[in-house]
Amino acid sequence: MLTRIGDLDDEVLLEMIAKPLAESDIASAVAFKRCSRRFKNLATKPVADAVKRTNENWRAAAASIGGPGAAKIRGELGRNEVLKTLDLSGKKIDDEGAAAIAGALRGNAVLKTLNLRYNKIGSEGAAAIGEALRGNGVLKTLNLSLNYIGVEGAKAIGAALRGNGVLIELRLDLNQIGDEGAKALASALRVNAVLTTLDISANEIGPEGGKAIAEALRGNGVLNNIDLRFNALGDEGKGAIRDAVSGREGFKLQISCYIEGAAALASALRVNEVLTTLKLVDNNIGDEGAVALASALRVNGVLTILNLRDNDLGDEGEGVIRDAVSGRVGFELEM
After folding, report:
1. Which of these, 50, 124, 118, lies nearest to 82 by C-alpha position?
2. Which CATH architecture has domain 258-335?
3. Alpha carbons 10 and 22: distance in angstroms, whole number
4. What stretches of 136-285 show up as alpha helix (H) in DSSP?
5. CATH number of 67-255
6. Half-sphere exposure of 141 toward its Cβ, with a 13 Å CA cutoff?
7. Distance (Å, rounded) from C-alpha 18 to C-alpha 240?
8. Does residue 168 have a pLDDT over 60?
9. Which of 115, 160, 176, 279 could be disulfide-bonded to 307 (CB atoms 3.0-4.6 Å)?
10. Comparing 8-17, 137-146, 294-303, which segment has the lowest mean pLDDT?
11. Mean pLDDT in the chain?
12. End-to-end CA distance of the chain
């Protein structure tokens, strides 16, 4: 009695079965490939074709994200048994789309990396993703940078980190989480024993938020890479953080942006359609960094508040920044 495809001896018949399986359903194709080592070579071409077709479906859904596109993504992700990395950066995903993706994450047992950078995800979308993270035991890397999750979104993600034992890399830069958001994440770091990399740069975090992060780092021996550049930590916040990780061998701390960091931030600002306030107090960007930022400011029509105090700016640096925002009605600039 025939019970498994692998029991078939007729290679021609096997090839005939493999092709329609792959064409009709990628999960069936993968199951066929796994069913018998003897016949895995027969299924390789059909499976490869099916994977290519599946990737095209992902791209088509991503191109029309929001409403129908979000539903397509959820459907594809829910059926996915192959895709381990999904990049949906810059697809104008809003809270509705984020909620759809979050719904699919709950039942997905394969996806390990999800990139949602540079979208329009707010606190509600972040809350949905946070809730999904509580029940997801696979996802290891999540990028939510350059959205606008704010304080409430940071609290939701922080709550998720308390119950998630898998995620090792989290990027939340450029999300305006402020001191309160930083405190929520710090509280989660005290009990999270998995996360190794955290990026919360450019988030308007001041001394109080910095001190909360520092206190969390003292009791967390797992996190070994944190990016706090482009914040307003001040000497007090920076000092507390440096003291907290002093002596931690191999710990990567990014706390002042300097020229190179300013250039990277400028690249993000060129495409920014969300961030309205940027506080870069005491980041040592210098005149060269100011030139890079000025170039981005000329094409960025969204930012309305910029604070560059204590950044070693000379006449040249201050001049190019002022020229870049000249004529912008209501623009608040502090240097």
Report:
1. 50
2. Alpha-Beta Horseshoe (3.80)
3. 19
4. 150-163, 178-189, 207-219, 234-245, 258-271
5. 3.80.10.10
6. 11
7. 61
8. yes
9. 279
10. 8-17
11. 81
12. 82
